[in-house]
Design goal:
The protein is α+β, with helices and mostly antiparallel strands. It folds into 5 domains: 117 residues, no CATH class; 45 residues; 63 residues; 86 residues, no CATH class; 60 residues, no CATH class. Helices cover 32% and strands 22% of the residues. The protein contains 13 helices and 18 strands. The protein has a 5-stranded antiparallel sheet, with no helix packed on it. Strands 12-13-14-15 form a 4-stranded antiparallel sheet, with no helix packed on it. Strands 2-1-6 form a 3-stranded antiparallel sheet, with no helix packed on it. Strand 4 and strand 5 form a beta hairpin. Helix 5 runs antiparallel to helix 6. The longest helix has 25 residues. The protein starts with a helix and ends with a helix.
Length: 420
């Protein structure tokens, strides 16, 4: 919800209800409390209202029709959850607040316009402010990132943006983003330029260029035949006449020893089929298959059904279509794929397990020690459960941990009673 919507929602509550919510909200221990009710309060009313001593201006309530829609939606959701669960209790509290509006007649009557069947249809879907592949400023982390995907929340009529980073993906509302404007850089090479390639001997002529996923690819030709596209990062301008005293820096093109140290991505990625990676040609893509009997065993595919197959080293002899662990590591080490994969591999050395995006996991409720199945979406709820240590691979692990925590607390209280 926007700040304006949160302010309206907060001002619509009776003062005694606002006071009760603030009392409950201020009493939570943020280091362990992360459950649905707190998140709903944050989204509905905004932290700025929940922590402020300033009373909002008096206002009239919304039309009865709108309250009825909300009441009906929450009631359906309430029926999904089992009795006694945190989700059901939280939704029940919100439903009771709406019932109070009905019983105390605090709703405005429906206006003639809103009662008109022609005007009572579904709210028109908001248009996204940003687009896939656009660079934006993520305000809370103060970073410029590229939107990987967008998805729409029909209930609240706003859009979310998903970002892929080296350590996983995360989601932000459009209101958390700002447009990023950058100067359009000039092309590194122009049509007709002669260039050298880091892996292929000879002199090539630039025929054309194209931009894909914010990267520039140049079409090269040798003697007017065998045209191919390659990333600009593997090219340098050819100078026919070189000064004898001039020192040419070839370090960025890699030494012969470096070229001999080919990556073996088949080994690194053997258990990662289905995971997301980054290709300068495909953008964000999934590892579709590894066929070890092929000389090009690595098969990649993106959401547009574009695909490529690569050798174990992750790139063709011409240096094109390299495979990187993530876009962030590609931008940081565009000419050092081995280093990028080394960093990625180090980060994944034995750590506490966490599910992949979209996979299931089990978590323990710290209030009643009940365990539940969750779906990893790398959002605030998943992050908090993981950081709090309430996140498990299997149901049996979760139950075992719950039992140990319960016994530890019982032993603590028995010891304290004995000290009196």
């Amino acid at each position: 919800m926007t700040t304006e919507q949160q302010n309206l929602a907060w001002a619509s509550l009776p003062k005694e209800v606002r006071d009760k919510i603030k009392e409950r909200y201020s009493g939570w221990n943020r280091s362990i409390c992360f459950e649905t009710e707190e998140i709903l309060y944050d989204d509905l009313f905004g932290i700025h209202n929940l922590t402020s001593d300033t009373e909002p201006e008096e206002m009239l309530m919304v039309e009865r029709r709108e309250v009825q829609k909300w009441y009906s939606s929450l009631s359906k959701e309430h029926a999904i959850y089992a009795k006694g669960t945190v989700d059901r209790i939280s939704l029940g509290a919100r439903i009771a607040m709406l019932e109070e509006l009905f019983t105390k007649d605090k709703c405005l009557p429906n206006t003639p316009d809103s009662s008109n069947p022609a005007n009572s249809g579904k709210e028109e879907q908001a248009k996204p402010k940003f687009s896939k592949g656009q660079k934006v400023i993520v305000k809370d982390v103060d970073k410029v990132l590229t939107i990987d995907t967008l998805f729409y929340n029909s209930r609240y009529n706003y859009w979310y943006a998903n970002f892929e980073e080296a350590d996983g993906s995360f989601v932000r509302k459009e209101s958390d983003l700002e447009p990023y404007t950058e100067e359009i850089s000039t092309l590194k090479f122009k049509k007709g330029d002669k260039v050298e390639h880091m892996d292929i001997p000879g002199i090539f002529e630039v025929v054309s260029h194209k931009e894909k996923f914010s990267n520039i690819f140049y079409e090269l030709s040798k003697d007017g035949t065998d045209n191919f596209f390659t990333d600009e990062s593997v090219l340098r301008l050819y100078t026919e006449e070189k000064n004898d005293m001039e020192v040419i820096d070839d370090s960025r093109f890699g030494s012969e020893a470096d070229k001999e140290k080919e990556l073996n991505l088949c080994e690194l990625l053997k258990d990662r089929v289905g995971a997301l990676f980054y290709s300068p040609y495909l953008g964000m893509c999934r590892l579709n298959d590894i066929d070890k009997d092929s000389d090009h065993p690595i098969e990649l595919k993106n959401d547009n059904d574009e695909w490529v197959i690569l050798p174990p080293s992750g790139h063709e002899p011409d240096g094109s279509v390299m495979l990187y662990p993530s876009r962030a590591l590609y931008e940081k080490y565009p000419l050092e794929p081995a280093k990028a994969w080394q960093i990625w591999s180090e980060e994944r050395k034995p750590k506490r397990w966490r599910a992949e995006d979209g996979e299931d996991y089990w978590w323990m409720n710290p209030f009643d020690f009940q365990v539940h199945r969750g779906r990893e979406e790398y959002d605030r709820v998943d992050d908090r459960r993981y950081r709090a240590g309430l996140y498990f691979r299997t149901e049996s692990d979760a139950k075992e941990a719950a039992e140990e925590v319960r016994k530890t607390l019982e032993a603590f209280h028995q010891r304290k009673e004995g000290e009196k």
